[in-house]
Design a protein that fits this description.
The complex is a heterodimer of chains A (about 400) and B (about 110).
Chain A lengths: L3 E5 L3 H12 L5 E5 L15 H4 L4 H4 L4 H6 L2 E4 L4 E5 L4 E4 L4 E3 L2 E4 L3 E3 L12 E2 L4 H10 L5 E5 L3 H12 L3 E5 L12 H13 L3 E3 L4 E5 L6 E4 L4 E3 L2 E4 L3 E3 L2 H5 L4 E2 L1 E3 L11 E3 L4 E4 L7 E2 L4 H16 L10 E6 L2 E7 L6 E7 L4 E7 L5 E7 L2 H12 L6 H5 L5 H5 L3
Parallel strand pairs in A: 1-2, 1-7, 2-3, 7-20, 9-16, 10-11, 10-16, 11-12, 19-21
Antiparallel strand pairs in A: 4-5, 5-6, 8-17, 13-14, 14-15, 18-19, 21-22, 23-24, 24-27, 25-26, 26-27
Helix pairs in contact in A: 1-9
Chain B lengths: L1 E6 L5 E6 L5 H6 L20 E4 L12 H7 L9 E3 L12 E4 L6
Parallel strand pairs in B: 1-5
Antiparallel strand pairs in B: 1-2, 3-4, 3-5
Classes of the chains: A alpha/beta (about 400), B alpha+beta (about 110).
Chain lengths: ~400, ~110
């Protein structure tokens, strides 16, 4: 058993790793190095209940300091790790502290992709990744203000929903022909476009942003078709970049994310990588690997790494899953639809309760997108983990319950 | 603050003072009560905070919403006393509530 385990990062993956190590009986020295000056917290509420004010900082924080002390975790919240020395088995922080490790867990997360156009650094241009980002955005989100959202992904759509409810005018700009183009099928994109349209949001697709205009503060967003969309504030949500530089500089394999095996172990057997920063084998999807930007992935990889370090049996890998809340709609996604041959819609989108099942050529279920439809999500998630096949006609038949559909698959 | 007694599947009891307005799930997670995973953090998206409310208290917790009911329907070992603890906000009326935890949430 390693006598000292160092965790770099203080997000959900880092927190779960510490929790799982202690729960699994690890009684050595456990160090957690964060760099946001805040106790580890949940990020999903930042674009939802925290931004709307429904949930305060105390509720977003995962555990109070006393719980960390009781768990005997040596928590440092202003320790930005700038170097990793694999020969010496140590990490060094910006203020020059060097900390040795026997096992190292990299939970360095990701950062926002920055907008690269003139005016991108004007006051009033926001991103959303941290509590500080959410606080800054929240301060500018006053009723009657004009918000332009650049990027029709989950962050953009969730912020648009909160802003609309708070009484702002909202325009969403999307470069692709539809919102959620990278992550959802057209029927789901259409559904969310209609939902936001009905809530009074303007969505412009197939548009290219060329500049943010304004003297010292945002006044508008200029498009390639020479239109300018007036704005008092801008939210940029155009994706994230894994924080893999530390690992890469130390010679670990890290192209798009730090590459790990099924146990979350990197190309160095003493170093693990978990959460947004890691590229992992996608166990339910053949020989593929990839990064999964989700809470489920952060928690699961943390548990895998903890078990591997302690020599405990590997936890069963679940179907990847994800959720999004917008207005009164809950989207739950299980699985990965890449490679699907066809899809089946179950239910009626106009009733705001339906699901899209993605099947391969042999009708094996790969993924399900469920709108206010927990049975479809839960049964779908179970069937995907079992690599089960489903008959399309039966799936589309609402007179057959999901329990019946899932039975025996 | 209002008191919640969490009884693990093993029988171990945890008596916790939980702030009014926060949920029974949060009271467990923030006080290291094992047996409530709450993967989604309280979004009613994952059904990993399943509890069995003591029969004497179930009426006072009110009725589950339709999303919760639908999620619970698929939880392991569900009974009429089952609730998702992220959907029960603590009130003064719930001071003293007793909840039992299932063997596993996954």
């Amino acid at each position: 058993m390693p006598s000292r385990i160092v965790i770099v990062g203080a997000g959900q993956a880092a927190t779960q790793a510490a929790t799982s190590l202690r729960a699994g009986g690890y009684d050595g020295h456990l160090v957690l190095l964060g760099n946001e000056g805040l106790l580890p917290y949940q990020r999903p509420p930042l674009s939802k209940a925290y931004l709307s004010g429904a949930m305060g900082l105390d509720r977003v924080v995962l555990k109070p300091m006393e719980a960390w002390i009781e768990d005997k975790v040596d928590v440092h919240l202003d320790a930005e790790v700038t170097a990793l020395d694999r020969q010496a088995k140590s990490v060094t922080t910006r203020d020059g502290q060097t900390i040795g490790y026997d096992a190292l867990i990299l939970a360095t997360g990701s950062r926002v992709r920055a907008l690269a156009c003139p005016g991108a650094d004007l006051r009033g241009v926001h991103y959303l990744r941290s509590i500080a980002d959410a606080d800054g955005l929240g301060q500018d989100m006053q009723p009657g203000k004009r918000l332009v959202v650049i990027g029709g992904g989950y962050i953009g759509l969730e912020v648009a929903a909160v802003a609309r409810k708070a009484g702002l005018e909202v325009v969403i700009l999307e470069a692709a022909p539809r919102v959620l183009a990278r992550v959802a099928p057209p029927v789901i994109s259409d559904f969310f476009q209609t939902l936001h349209h009905d809530a009074g949001v303007t969505i412009l697709t197939d548009v290219k942003v060329t500049a943010i205009e304004g003297a010292d503060c945002v006044a508008g967003v200029a498009l390639a078709d020479s239109r300018t969309i007036p704005a008092d504030l801008v939210l940029v949500g155009i994706g994230i970049i894994p924080n893999a530089e530390l690992a890469r500089a130390a010679g670990l394999k890290a192209e798009d994310g730090i590459e790990t095996d099924v146990d979350a172990r990197t190309s160095d057997p003493a170093i693990f990588a978990i959460g947004d920063c890691a590229s992992r084998p996608l166990v339910h999807y053949g020989q593929r690997r990839g990064r999964l930007e989700s809470v489920h992935n952060a928690l699961e990889q943390a548990k895998l790494a903890a078990a591997a370090i302690m020599g405990l049996p590997r936890p069963v890998e679940e179907t990847p899953w994800f959720w999004s809340d917008q207005y009164d709609i809950k989207l739950q996604i299980a699985g990965l639809s890449t490679g699907a041959a066809h899809s089946v819609v179950r239910g009626d989108p106009s009733q705001k309760r339906f699901a899209v099942f993605h099947l391969d050529a042999d009708n094996r279920l790969l993924a399900v997108d469920a709108i206010n439809a927990p049975p479809e999500f839960i049964v779908g998630k179970q069937v995907i983990a079992r690599h089960g096949q489903l008959a399309p006609a039966r799936l589309a038949d609402m007179s057959v319950s999901m329990k019946e559909i899932g039975a025996g698959v | 603050m209002a008191k919640v007694t969490y009884i693990e599947h093993s029988g171990t009891e945890h008596v916790i003072e939980v702030p009014v307005g926060t949920t029974i799930m949060e009271g467990a997670v923030k006080n290291r009560v094992p047996g409530i995973d709450a993967d989604c953090g309280g979004a009613c998206a994952c059904a990993t905070c399943h509890v069995f409310v003591d029969a004497a208290w179930i009426e006072k917790t009110g009725k589950p919403g339709s999303m919760e009911e639908s999620m619970l329907d698929f939880a392991e070992g569900v009974t009429p006393l089952s609730r998702l603890s992220c959907q029960i906000s603590m009130t003064a009326e719930l001071d003293g509530i007793v909840v039992r935890l299932p063997a596993a949430q996954h």
